[in-house]
Design goal:
The complex is a heterodimer. By secondary structure, chain A is of the alpha/beta class. Chain A is built from five helices and five strands. In chain A, helix 2 packs parallel to helix 3. The longest helix of chain A is centred in the first third of the chain and has 13 residues. Chain A is globular, with a radius of gyration of 13 Å. In chain B, the strands form two sheets. Chain B has a seven-stranded mixed sheet, with helices on both faces. Chain B has a three-stranded antiparallel sheet with strand order 3-5-4. Chain B has twelve helices and ten strands. In chain B, about 35% of the residues are buried. Chain B is globular and about 60 Å long. By secondary structure, chain B is α/β, with parallel strands linked by helices. The chains are: A alpha/beta, B alpha/beta. At the A-B interface, helix 4, strand 5 and helix 5 of A face helix 8 of B. The complex binds S-adenosylmethionine. The site of S-adenosylmethionine has 22 residues of chain B, from loops. Chain A: One of its GO terms (biological process) is phosphorelay signal transduction system. Chain A: InterPro entries: CheY-like_superfamily, Sig_transdc_resp-reg_receiver, ST_Response_Regulator. Chain A: Pfam families: Response_reg. Chain A: Keywords: Phosphoprotein. Chain A: This is Two-component system response regulator.
């Protein structure tokens, strides 16, 4: 079974994402900010990371930059999932090494389409 | 609505657009047609039916037909047809048409435009191989409403997140608030025309590729057979037909046969005999240059 780390400071979003991704047969890990997420990744690299942008302690973009520097940090597929939905933010995320980008609000269909897009389904 | 009114509407839709409704779709008719009736100042389905029976009620008739269509579509729908398109159909046709340098593509139920625009993006991504070529994409649909949306090329945030890779969104669309519009360059690659598949294809000329996806499912067997037969006649013998994931020619017509190992892709049944000749001459032509 593939693992997906869901990184979002909103417990509601984490819950919604967990439900959708579990239905797609992922094992879910959760983190509330970039710092926690980085620690989880240092323990074990997940196959996928669903990543919010604005979070306390360490934001999504900085987490991504740190992740890609880690040993094996280039393997997880990173899908941003954020309300920052303008071209500028999207372009920055892609340049920083994100594989896909979900603009909130999202639903089951979009998550499925985007995870398919990066080859996880 | 009375059984007689329901029967009238079923007959009406079948003859106008091919749409077949089973016995118990009254709820569907009511939910789709009551708004149409109200907009025309009519209070019920009964009044709508009475009005449709008047001669020259063409605007209302069109509105009824349009309201009953199902227009769902998305970019790169089912993915594989577009892989077949870039990896097989286009390379084969680039060889076969090397002397004419012209390829014609028809999206026969284009809806809001995602399918023709996906083809336009595929072509743009292989641009370097297409210098000097003329590639036409014709998008047709029975509904004016969806064609207007297709021409505008503007999609919601939800629509651009179903199947469209994020890099292509950045590359080919511009953003206005929550909506995204496809670039003028891609828009100019597609021509649009209102067209009913029940009408004659005679004015279209010959196509090399036909996408006819997720529309035959709404028709009965006889209508499917008729349309497939007429598509075959409007296609180059070495052309390609693409159907939707839930559609097939098998058991319906001998005019097409499945392309080996390419799900959803069909070739004219004459292809096996007709193909070598034009290919050979195209190659010979190229060799002479
Ligand atoms: C579900 S959409 C398919 C869109 C696209 N081909 C795809 O697969 O995503 C079906 C379209 O067929 C159109 N349609 C239905 N009956 C038709 C007819 N008789 N002639 C032309 N178009 C028709 C509808 O208006 C609708 O836009």
């Amino acid at each position: 079974m593939k693992t997906c780390l869901v990184v979002d400071d909103s417990s509601v979003i984490r819950k919604v994402a967990r439900r959708i991704l579990e239905d797609l047969s992922f094992t879910i890990l959760e983190a509330e900010d970039g710092q926690q997420a980085l620690e989880k990744c240092q323990e074990t690299m997940p196959d996928a990371i669903l990543l919010d942008w604005n979070m306390p302690v360490m934001d999504g973009l900085e987490f991504l930059a740190q992740l890609r520097k880690l040993d094996g940090g280039d393997t997880p597929k990173v899908v941003f999932c954020t309300t920052e939905n303008d071209v500028g933010h999207i372009a920055r995320a892609i340049r920083a090494g994100a594989n896909e980008y979900i603009m909130k609000p999202f639903d089951r269909e979009i998550v499925e389409a985007k995870f398919q897009e990066v080859g996880l389904l | 609505m009375s059984p007689a009114e329901y029967d009238y509407l079923r007959q009406f839709l079948k003859s106008r657009s091919g749409l077949v409704l089973s016995n118990e779709k009254q709820y569907l008719i009511e939910s789709r047609l009551l708004p149409v009736a109200r907009k025309a100042g009519l209070q019920s389905i009964a009044a709508l039916v009475a009005k449709l029976k008047e001669p020259r009620e063409t605007a209302l008739a069109e509105a009824v037909v349009e309201a009953m269509t199902t227009n769902e579509s998305f970019f790169y729908r089912d993915k594989t047809p577009f892989e077949h398109f870039t990896q097989m159909m286009m390379p084969e046709l680039l060889k076969a048409r090397a002397s004419q340098k012209k390829i014609r593509i028809w999206c026969a139920a284009a809806s809001t435009g995602q399918e023709p625009y996906t083809l336009a993006m595929c072509l743009k991504e292989m641009e370097s191989k297409l210098a000097g070529w003329r590639i036409e994409i014709l998008g047709t649909d029975i509904s004016n409403e969806v064609l207007d949306r297709a021409k505008a090329g503007t999609y919601t945030q939800f629509e651009v997140q179903r199947g469209l890779p994020i890099q292509l969104l950045l590359k080919y669309f511009t953003q206005q608030g929550e909506s995204w519009t496809i670039s003028p360059q891609l828009r100019s690659m597609v021509q649009w025309k209102k067209f009913n598949l029940l009408d004659s294809f005679a004015s279209f000329g010959q196509f090399d590729i036909v996408f006819c996806r997720n529309v035959l499912i709404y028709f009965d067997q006889a209508t499917k057979v008729d349309i497939l037969g007429r598509i075959a006649k409007t296609m180059a013998p070495d052309g390609y037909l693409v159907l939707g994931a839930a559609e097939t020619v098998v058991g319906l017509t001998d005019a097409f046969k499945p392309a080996p190992d390419r799900r959803g892709l069909y070739v004219p049944a004459t292809a096996a005999t007709a193909q070598p000749a034009p290919r050979f001459s195209a190659l010979a032509g190229a060799a002479r240059v």
